[in-house]
Amino acid sequence: MKSNTKSNLIIIGFLFALSTMISINLNSDAGNNDRSTEYSDDIEFDYENVKLSKISGKIHIDNNWTVAKSAGICTGSGTYSDPYVIEDLVIDGKGTGNCILIEDSNVFFKIENCTLYNSGGGPLTAGIKLDSVRNGLLIQNNVLNNYAFGIYLLSNEKVKIIGNTVSNNVADGIQLSMANNNTISGNDVNTHPYWGIDLHHSDNNMVSDNTASNNDDGIRLGLSNNNIISGNTVNSNNNFGIEIITSDNNTVFDNTVNNNRQGIELGKSDNNTISGNTANNNRENGIRLGLSHHNKISGNIVNNNTEDGIYIHYSNNNTVSGNTLFNNNNTGVYISSISNNNNIALNCFITNTINAVDYGSGNQWDNGIRGNYWADYAGSDANADGIGDIPYNITGSAGSQDNFPLMKCPISTRKGGGVPFELIILISVISGGAVIGVATLLLIRRKRKGIQ
Question: Residue 421: enclosing H or E segment and its boundaries?
Answer without folding.
Answer: helix 421-431
